[in-house]
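Researcher: Next sequence.
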Amino acid sequence: MSNILDKDTSEVLIQRVRNLTQFSEARWGKMDVVQMLVHCNESSKMAIGTKKMKRMFLGRIFGRIVLKKTLKNDVPLKKNSPTVPGLIVKGRKDFNKEKDDFIRVLSTLGMMKIEDFNDKVHPFFGKMTGREWDVLMYKHFDHHLKQFGV
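Model: Next structure:
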């Protein structure tokens, strides 16, 4: 199963990000390319532990079940999967800055250890292991890069 902490995998993702332009159009969903970059940058902060978000009520009930189903195989995330409300991006941001930030995030993640992510809390899935974050981040970023055709 692909994972974000593998240096080769993070390099492939970085190349995919480099292929994005400010004119890249979504194949599905409501985000534009800049909003997607901000969304991915912000979501990575949860995994690193620098962004804390309140647990969602439905996540407390169904989060672990959905997480296990999501991580059990290499099946990509479904199109139009729901987004944690606190990660919905509003307003205009700078494309080049967000793209550069995402490349830095991916480079940093490629150098981190799985233990660095242990016990970080996702607002829907709850407290996760490093391995769970590792696979979920890859699936999440892959999902959004496919959303924009790269």
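Model: The chain has a mean pLDDT of 94. Residues 130-147 form the longest helix (18 residues).
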